[in-house]
Design brief:
By secondary structure, the protein is an alpha/beta fold. It has three domains: 153 residues, Rossmann fold (3-Layer(aba) Sandwich); 49 residues, no CATH class; 94 residues, Cyclin A, domain 1 (Orthogonal Bundle). The chain is 54% helix and 12% strand. The strands form three sheets. It has a five-stranded parallel β-sheet with strand order 2-5-8-1-9, sandwiched between helices. A two-stranded antiparallel sheet has the order 3-4. Strands 6-7 form a two-stranded antiparallel sheet. The two termini are 38 Å apart.
């Protein structure tokens, strides 16, 4: 799908919903609307929500839908400019330095004054800090992609305010200024996704720059559609029971309630074990797939019988 097709469509949001579903991502109209506005306004989209609700998958599916390469930048504490913008190819510079040492006499031959000699040497120095020796990192790669790309800045909330300032400077005009080279501006601005697990509050300036989208945990109906899309071989009975079971867990006071990714992984595990319907024993044996903390496993195990009965009663 091309952006031109979306812009020409009478129902672009519906087109995005069906297009994303074709690549395995079941999007609500709210998600598709935010994505469409981000694409049309050429603004980054900030996707917030608990881990596992499909933030990263939205970026991956969008790149597939639009036929654009994906450039992913995984954020972490202490991430700095050299890791996201550029660095120099030091090994290549060193190699060329060794080669030039053998030719320096030839280069200076005929220089009548010291100023003339220094001018020739400065020209060589400038060459070492040209694009030939530049090693672009993800942020600069996205600006230098002539055909456009999808830039995924994953878990931006793990970085600090200084990194936010760098993003604001770069994404405000889709350009960056390199001291040794000058300004590099994107000929085709990247489609930018920023994801956040709400580890810390992001700055107002960054939020204002973006289209904001918060993805909550899904309803039972949406979760059932997602499981069916990812695992078409699962029976409607097992799908209904496990989705109801997971929905019940989210009403419990757990350290980490299961998200969509855990539901799909659990369903896949049950299929591998040839389970046809939920039972207390199989639930207890596989809770470690669904829950990530032992305290949560213990709490659910104590109520496994009641939870399984309620799951079967509502199918």
């Amino acid at each position: 799908m091309k952006m031109e097709d979306l812009e020409a469509s009478d129902a672009p949001v519906d087109g995005l919903v069906s297009g994303l579903e074709g690549f395995g991502y079941v999007a609500s109209r709210r998600i598709a609307t935010a994505l469409y506005l981000s694409l049309r306004l050429k603004k980054p989209i900030l996707v917030e929500g608990a881990a596992g609700v499909g933030k990263t998958e939205l970026a991956l599916s969008t790149s597939q839908l639009l036929g654009l390469p994906l450039i992913r930048m995984q954020c972490y504490e202490g991430l700095d400019e050299s890791r996201v913008l550029y660095e120099w190819k030091y090994a290549k510079q060193l190699l060329y330095t060794q080669l030039l040492k053998e030719r320096v006499g030839d280069l200076l031959e005929g220089a009548s004054t010291m100023d003339d000699a220094m001018a020739r040497l400065r020209g060589i120095g400038d060459m070492f800090f040209s694009e030939d020796f530049l090693q672009p990192r993800p942020l600069l790669q996205s600006l230098m992609s002539d055909q456009g790309c999808v830039l995924l800045i994953d878990e931006v909330d793990k970085t600090d305010e200084a990194f936010e300032a760098l993003l604001l400077e770069t994404l405000s005009a889709y350009q960056v200024s390199l001291p040794e080279i000058g300004v590099i501006k994107a000929s085709t601005p990247p489609i930018v996704f920023l994801t956040s697990n709400n580890i810390r509050e992001l700055g107002d300036a960054l939020k204002r720059r973006c289209i904001h989208l918060s993805i909550p945990l899904p309803s039972a109906e949406l979760e059932s559609r997602i499981v069916e899309k990812r695992l078409p071989d699962i029976s409607s009975q097992l799908r209904g029971e496990l989705v109801t079971f997971v929905q019940e867990l989210r009403h419990m006071k757990l350290r980490k309630p299961p998200s969509i990714s855990e539901t799909v992984e659990w369903a896949q595990s049950l299929l591998m074990l040839h389970v046809e319907e939920l039972g207390v024993d199989v639930v207890r044996e596989t809770l470690n797939v669904l829950l990530k903390f032992e305290s949560d496993v213990d709490a659910v195990e104590a109520q496994a019988g009641d939870l399984v009965r309620r799951a079967k009663a509502t199918r």
